Amino acid sequence: MADFNKILDAGDVDGGIINVVVEIPAGSSHKIEWNRDLAVFELDRIDPQIFAKPCNYGFIPQTLDEDGDELDALILTEQPLPTGIFLKAKVIGVMKFVDDGEVDDKIVVVPADDRDTGNAYNSLEDLPKQLINQLEFHFSHYKDLKKAGTTVVESWGDVAQAKEVIKESIQRWKDL
Predict the structure, then answer these.
(1) What is catalysed by this protein (predicted)?
(2) Is the pTM above the cut of 0.85?
């Protein structure tokens, strides 16, 4: 398996098209994580089915969020994407998120070439409000059966704010 952090960078952040690696397909309750030290995907845990991911979940190569892991991405597609692929993704916003007291932001993306939607999604405002509500509910409650109240969606940010979070995460990677 390729080491995504060696063969890919974050992409064209200023242009709004970034590289994203899929860890967890939409609908899965498997918490699959990229193990940076071994350069493999690892099953961290199995969450209760009621907390299956409402969207695809992945990371942006050569970034580090404040929690010490690669910066997370929420990848919005109609169909689940398999673990281990990467895509060119269009940045449409950021979910400002805190997990157990640590900043753990999520960059919201869609495929850069989405002919199914006609590339209709360019910002969070283009998404159905119900989808935003579902994402916020999921991430506010997915740890409730183990550690209730430890996850908080603080706010949502626009494309410019998302790009700033990515750039800060790239700098943390470079400083590693």
Answers:
(1) diphosphate + H2O = 2 phosphate + H(+)
(2) yes
